[in-house]
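Intended use. Records like the one below are meant for learning the mapping from a protein sequence to its folded structure. Do not use them to infer anything beyond what is encoded.
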Amino acid sequence: MKNIGLIGTGYWGKNLLRNLLIHQKVNKIYVLDYNSKNIKKSPNVKYFDNKKKFFSIQDIDIYLIATPTKSHFNYIKECLKLNKFVCVTKPFTSNYIQVQKLQKEFKNTNKIFLDHTYLFHSSIRYMKSLVKQKKLGKLIYYDSERISFGKFYNDVDVIDDLAVHDLYILDYLLNGETPNKIRVNSHNIFGNKNFISNISLNYPSGFFANIKVSWYSPIKSRRILLAGNKKIVEFDDNENDKKIKIYNKGIEYKPLKKINQWLYRTGEIEIPNIFHQESLTVMINELLKKSQLTNNDNKIFNHGKRVMKVLNQIKKKI
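Structure written out for the chain above:
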C-alpha cells in the first residue's frame, strides 16, 4: 500500500484522483491545490493549500504532478530533493533546458515517471506489438491528426499540448529513433498563440511522420495511420469498440516493367478484439510497480529527454 501526494486537481488532476480513490494498492491520499477551498472535496482525502506543509508530510511515498506546465520543473525538484518517486503529466517540463538542468542537478532522475497517457493505451500497445512482430513489414510512414475546438492555455501552445502526444508515441514505436530533418508550418493569432500546426519529420531509417494539430476545428479527431510495406494500421480514438483497424493493403514498385509498374494489393480489413482498460489505471499500476523496484534505470527519463529535445527543435523551426 502506497501513500500518494497529488499536486493539482484541475482537469487532469480530477481524473487521477478518481482513479487513485478506487485503487486497491493506494492507502492515503494527500492533495495540494491552492484553490482547495473552492473545490468539491472527496472523503478520505486530506487537502492542503500550503506548499511547505504539504512537502513536510513524512509518509508520502509517491508524488503526482497535474499542474500547469510552467510549474512542473519546480515541483519535480521539490520531489527529487526528498528522494521520492514523482509522476509528471505532459509536457514533461516547459523546455528542453529544464530537462538538462534536472539531469545535471540530480542523480536520482530514475525516480521520474511520465504520464505519457497514450503509452498506457491498449490500442497503442497493440500497434507496438504489430511493429515488434513485423506484421506491418518495413515501416514507411506515420500520419496523425489531433484537432478540436480549444482549449487554449496560457503557458503552452497547440504543439506543446497536442503534438507532444505524437512525439512520445513515435519515440515508443521507433525505439528511440529521433528525426534528422524537421519542417514546421504554424499559424499564430488569438493572442499570438500557435493554434494550428503541421509538422513533418524525416528519420535516418527513411521513415516519415506527418503531424497535424489544431485548437480551432469544429470537429474533434484523434486519428493515427501507421503504414508498412505489408499492412497499414489505423487507430481512431473517437471510435468506441473499433479503435484499431488493420488494412491488408500495399504497393509494390516494378521499375523494369514498361507498364503497370505499380502493383496494388488489396485484402481484407481486420478489426482485432482488444481488451481495453482505462489508460490512467494502467499508468498508476505501472507507477506503483516501478516504485517498488530496488534497481530503477533511467529509461523513462531518457525517453522524456528525447521527446523534449525533438519538441525543442520543432519550436525553433516556427
